[in-house]
Design goal:
With 188 residues, this protein is of the alpha/beta class. The protein has seven helices and five strands, in the order αβαβαβααβαβα.
C-alpha cells in the first residue's frame, strides 16, 4: 500500500508539470484490460479520480477485459500516441508475448512506461468451510489424488495464473487450472 501511495503522489506531482504544458485539454481515457472490481481497476479509478481533480479534466476509466489483457492493450496500441489513452497493466503484460502468438502490438515498442502504481501480493485462499487449513494440507491432498483439485485464476497469463503454475511446479502437484475473466470472479 505504501508503494501505491508513493506512486500516486508521484503521478499527481507529474500531473502538475504536465498541466503547465496545457495537457490535458480534453478527456483522458484509462484503459483497464481486466474486469471491473479487480485490483487493477480499483487502482486505476483512484488514480483517475485524483488526476481528474488535479487536471480539472474528465478522466474516464474503461474496462476492456479478455485474452489475458491483450484486448485492452491492443486498443491502446492502436490509439493515437498523444497521452490521452493510457493503459494500466499488471505483470501479465510482459508474459503475453510468450503465451500468445501474433500479438497485434509490440509489448516493448508500442508502449512507454510512465510510473509503477503498486505492488500487490498474491495469496492462496480457500473457503472458510474447506477441510484444508494449511498449505501442507493442500499439497498432501493434491499428491494423494492428482488432478482432482482445481485452482482459479484471473485468466490465462495473469499474475495469479503464473504464480499458481510456479507453486504447482515447485510442489510437484497436479491441479487443474480454471481461468476466469478477472479476479473478482475467482472469489465466488
Amino acid at each position: 500500500m505504501k508503494r501505491f501511495i508513493i506512486a500516486a503522489a508521484c503521478a499527481l506531482a507529474a500531473a502538475g508539470a504536465l498541466a503547465q504544458a496545457n495537457y490535458p485539454n480534453k478527456p483522458v481515457r484509462i484503459i483497464v484490460p481486466f474486469t471491473a472490481g479487480s485490483a487493477t481497476d480499483i487502482m486505476a479509478r483512484i488514480v483517475g479520480e485524483r488526476l481528474g481533480a488535479r487536471w480539472n479534466q474528465t478522466v474516464i476509466v474503461e474496462n476492456k477485459p479478455g485474452a489475458g489483457g491483450t484486448l485492452g492493450a491492443t486498443q491502446v496500441a492502436k490509439s493515437e500516441p498523444d497521452g490521452y489513452t493510457l493503459l494500466v497493466v499488471s505483470t501479465g503484460h510482459v508474459v503475453n508475448p510468450v503465451l500468445y502468438q501474433n500479438l497485434p502490438y509490440d509489448t516493448l515498442g508500442d508502449f512507454a512506461g510512465v510510473i509503477p502504481l503498486a505492488t500487490l501480493p498474491n495469496m492462496l485462499v480457500v473457503g472458510a468451510d474447506s477441510p484444508f487449513k494449511t498449505v501442507s494440507d493442500i499439497v498432501a491432498a493434491a499428491k494423494a489424488k492428482p488432478g482432482t483439485l482445481n485452482y482459479a485464476s484471473a485468466g490465462t497469463g495473469s499474475a495469479t495464473h503464473i504464480n499458481a503454475e510456479k507453486f504447482r511446479a515447485v510442489t510437484g502437484i497436479n491441479v487443474q487450472h480454471v481461468p476466469y475473466k478477472g479476479t473478482p470472479e475467482t472469489i465466488v
